[in-house]
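User: My instructor asked us to take a sequence, write out its structure as C-alpha cells, and then describe one feature of it. I'm not sure where to start. Here is the sequence I was given:
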Amino acid sequence: MLAATAALPVACAADGASDTAPPRTPQGAVSGAPAGPTTWLDLLDGAGSGEPLLVACQDRNADGRLDAADGYEGLSIPLADGPAACAEAGVHAEYWAGDAAVDCSGPPSLLVVLVGGGGTNLLDTSLGESIGMVEIANELRRRADDAGVATAPLLTAAAITGADLPQTRMEQWLAYDLSRRLDETPCLRAAVIGHSHGGVTVTSVLAAIEDAYPGRLYGVLLDRSTALYDRPAGEFPADAPVLNVFQENEGWHGVPLAMPNVEDLDQSAALPAWPLAAGEQGPPAPPVTHLNLDDAPGVRGEIVERILRWATASP
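Assistant: Let's start with the prediction itself. The C-alpha cells for your sequence are:
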C-alpha cells in the first residue's frame, strides 16, 4: 500500500425524493454493532500518519479565501465566516489524504476516495453515517495487494465548513486535489465513492475532470442525494464508468440514472450489517435504508468486485 500522510493540495434524498432528512440514529442502534473506534482513521487499515484537516484552516493568510495566496494556484474558495471558519479545528475535520507518489514502472496504482454524506466529521463516528465505506477501502486494499496493485486512501466530507457554498466548494477542492495527484502520478487511477451528498460530489467532480484523465476515473454512488444540497447539482460524467447503487425502501433514496456509462444497481433487498447469527433469537433484519446502505456486506462486496475488475484491467 502507498504511504498515507496528511496532504495539502489543494444527507439526503435523490432528485425527486423527499427533502426531509431521515432521523439519524447512533451507530449501535442502527446495526447492533458494538461501540468501537471514534474516528474514521481508527477504522482505516494502514492509515499511516497525518491528521485530518478542517479545510478552512488552510486559509494561511486569514483573508477569508482559499486561493493562490495560500498556495493553491487556480483555486478560489470564499469562506463565509472568514478566519472564524477555522474555529472547530481539532473537533471537526473533513479531509485527509494518502500519499499518491509511486514508482510508475510497475502496474497502475489506485487512489480510493471516500466522500461521506451530509454531516460527516472524520473525527466522530458516533452517528455511523457513511462509515461503512471505510470497510470498502479496507477490502480493496487487501484484494488489490493480492493483485499487485498499490492503493492509497483519501477521506473527505461532502462540504467545506465555513465556505459560502459548502457542498459546491468541496466539489472544487476535491477536483483540484484529484487533478494535482493524477498529474503528478501518471500511473494513478482513482475510484471515487460517495454516499448521499457525497454521491453528488462524485458526479460533479468526475464531470469536471474526466476529459483530462480518460480511463483513470471510476465513480460509485451510494444513494446519491441532491435534497438540501446548496444548489441543484446536475452534472454527470459522460464517459467515466459509474456504479449507481441505491435502495427504495424509504422516501429518502437514490434513483436509477439510465445513462450509457452508468450501471444502475438496486440493492433494496440487501441485508444491513450484523444480522442475527445462527441460533440467535430476535426479529429478522430490517431492509437497508439510506443511512445503512453502505453497511450492507453484500453491497460492499458488489462495489469491491467492480472496482477491482476496473482497476486491474489494461488502461
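For the description part of your assignment, you could build on this observation: The chain has one domain: 29-55+90-311. Try explaining in your own words what that tells you about the chain.
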